[in-house]
Amino acid sequence: MKPSKFIVALGAVMALAGAARAGTIVTINGTDDIYNAGAPGTQPGTDPTSVGVAGLSSITFSDATGEVYLNLTSGDNLNDPDGVGAAPSSSSNSGANNIAGLTAPNAGYITGVFLGPTLEPTPAALDFSSGTAFTSLAPALQ
User: 3-class DSSP state for residue 34?
Assistant: First the structure.
């Protein structure tokens, strides 16, 4: 099944470039919770930003800028869109609402999820603990 939208959450401003939407700028709120994608209001944060991608064959992200405080009252660590600067040196969760879990270096980074027209069974969790230096990525929906 092809994705119909891309949901982004946590931290900063990101430029989305793709066939019909080249140069689109997306603002992401630091309170957005990626696990509210497809099930709005079910997790503690705000609902994440959604961008329609139906019909696109590729998406390129560039120029992510901004800063967000992770654990504002308990850490006060300002981090960038990659999560660099966050108090935790890594993060891991098991997912929620049919959206895969994620293990990664740093914390408080921008993350995203591709959703189809309906929620599918939860795919296997993604593990970026060995690094995030890839030139392309083809995850399953959710």
Answer: helix
Model pTM above 0.85: no
- Buried residues in 45-64 as b, exposed as e (16+ CB within 10 A): bebbbbbebeebeebebeeb
Structure tokens at 122: 């939860």
CA 95 to chain centre: 12
Task: Check residues 19 and 64 and name the one with the higher pLDDT.
Answer: 64
pLDDT above 70 for 20: no
Dihedral sign, Cα of residue 23, residue 27, residue 28, residue 30: positive
Nearest partner of 54 among 22, 90, 18, 85, judged by Cα: 18
Whether the Cβ atoms of residue 9 and residue 34 lie closer than 8 Å to each other: yes
